[in-house]
Amino acid sequence: MRGQHVKSFFSFMITLLGLGTLITTLIWYKLDSNHEEPHRPPPQKKHAPTLSEICKACKEIIDKVHQRYNQTWKKNEKNYLRFRDNLRVKCNGFDNAIITQNNTPLGSNIVYSGEKKRTLQVKLDFFDLFSKENPFSNKKWDTCSVVGNGGILSESSCGKMIDSADLVIRCNLPPLENGYEKDVGIKTSLVTANPTIFFNKYGALAGRRLPFVESLRKYGNSLLLLPAFSFGMNTAVCQRAAYTIQDFKSPIQPVFFNPQYLDSLAQFWRSEGLKEARLSTGLIMVSMALELCENVHLYGFWPFSNHPYGLYTLTNHYYDDVPPKTVFHSMPAEFDHLLQLHTEGVLRLHLGDCKSDEK
Ligand SMILES: *[C@@H]1O[C@H](CO)[C@@H](O)[C@H](O)[C@H]1NC(C)=O
């Protein structure tokens, strides 16, 4: 009798452990957490893991993904056009994703996307920083790479393939040099910045600003997308970032997220069944890319803690293992939608290493 109690106690504890790991996996998000100085994460092991190393629940999740993930992917033009046109009608990121002097005139009121009660009347100081024309007009791109920052990119050798796209979109000022090029590439057309980086790494841009300017050099003359109107606390620091870039004559071009677009996009994804409060930067960039490019390829989007093929443990980002401080997004829920779009042939999600992909 007692033996049985002990046994069921143990199986209960094991179940608890399994659940704990599963929950940790489920709440991890990859893109919006701030990061410190990019230290290269310890090399990840590629040996075949022993059973005890693999979390059983993770394995089940990964198996489910494999059942849905098409290895031999083919674009479905009809599905792509349907999805893209739906986005164009409901969100029109092409004209609205970025604030321009045209879509946000002098004297108009900007409503913050993260604080609905906060507004800002556009005065000359900001108006002068707004893009004079739509940076996307008169351009057409065949292929886009959207690069998430997931640890899945480590040792992926995807750099060349990422850089071969006409338009390369990156998230949250990621490191690209010092050995990362091979896996993530170096070309950048558009990069987003999370203001947390300005606060944590560059002293809120209140003191010396040269280190910040130098850190932008690797992104060349790309667009730097700033969320100045998400929360009130981000406005001044994003304005300082834009001033810094202009004053130091850095070739990167600061532009601002249009909160109206972010609202319409949140509504769009809610209507697609995504229940999350806030969209991740990665999903926003994927949505933009679907309007801008005929062929959208995703890299570094993988919200689980184990590699989909090797099953070895992954770091949180390809450049560090810093876990998120707060949990805003549910990456697995977003990933589920991206996987769905992949199976429908709307976009292509890259989960394997690129060497074997190219065969
Ligand atoms: C993926 O596989 C499913 C089921 O076999 C199929 O219906 C779908 O068309 C495939 N998608 C692509 C993009 O190849």
From TrEMBL:
Signal peptide: none annotated. One of its GO terms (biological process) is N-glycan processing. It is found in: Golgi apparatus membrane. Disulfide bonds join 144-293. The keyword Secreted does not apply. The keyword Cell cycle does not apply. Pfam families: Glyco_transf_29. Keywords: Disulfide bond, Glycoprotein, Glycosyltransferase, Golgi apparatus, Membrane, Signal-anchor, Transferase, Transmembrane, Transmembrane helix. Its main location: Golgi. It is a single-pass type II membrane protein. Belongs to the glycosyltransferase 29 family. This is ST8 alpha-N-acetyl-neuraminide alpha-2,8-sialyltransferase 6.
